[in-house]
From TrEMBL:
Gene source species: Methylocaldum marinum
Similarity section: Belongs to the ABC transporter superfamily. Macrolide exporter (TC 3.A.1.122) family.
Protein name stated in the entry: ABC transporter
Cellular component, GO annotation: plasma membrane; transmembrane transporter complex
Keyword terms: ATP-binding, Nucleotide-binding, Transport
Pfam name, any one: ABC_tran
Domain ABC transporter stretches: 4-224
GO molecular function: ATP binding; ATP hydrolysis activity; transmembrane transporter activity
Amino acid sequence: MTKVRVEHVWKEYKLGKQTVKALRDVSMEVGDGEFIAIAGPSGSGKSTLLNLIGCIDTPSRGEIYIGDEEVSKKTPDQLADLRARTLGFIFQTFNLLPVLTAWENVEYPLLYRKDIPPRERRRRVAHYLVLVGLADFAKHKPSELSGGQRQRVAIARALAGHPAIILADEPTANLDSKTGESVLRLMKRLNRDEKTTFIFSTHDHRVMEMAERVITVSDGQITVP
Ligand SMILES: Nc1ncnc2c1ncn2[C@@H]1O[C@H](COP(=O)(O)OP(=O)(O)OP(=O)(O)O)[C@@H](O)[C@H]1O
């Protein structure tokens, strides 16, 4: 089954009198359970593409389907609901809340989910902290964790909502290569065991090599290698 479909998408940003064409007629598909890298040099449009798939931003032209739902036809409330139910995010700067512990950071987005009762919420937090190897660090704040541990908290947080798709914008950019590789291996194991679809951007060749498929973006367009 197709999880994500991007059809003839353009994204333009207006900067004063200038128009930046960040994406130009991009079409792509991602299937169920895929582990895909979006690769390309800095400024090529990777983050823009991930933000559009993640419904954080809207295309200037073209259509994006998440499952069989076309994103542009939705109201902001419906979009927020689709994001909460279907999508998980991992950012290169981890985006953890500094005053909260690892446990609380994983729990936080679940507090907004009326469909998840408190007991199930606590079960999930405990389960995913174990899964990412941080059971003993539940009470630590982000400042008391290493970069790799912080990113693993972010991965647990993304997974705890049981999203069908996880979008990761350069998840290893702020990690040394050994830690980056172990974070990638963890993502790959979760992709296999939890059947979560992963779409991540990178410009690191070693990270690309771990992907099942690489989509290359260059100057706002998908290029065939
Ligand atoms: N909010 C914005 N306003 C104006 N221009 C933008 C905006 N966001 C991105 N751009 C431009 O769109 C193009 C694509 O940017 P994008 O961030 O998608 O690239 P990227 O491939 O993710 O780069 P990097 O690897 O450096 O993160 C760039 O030319 C960038 O300057």
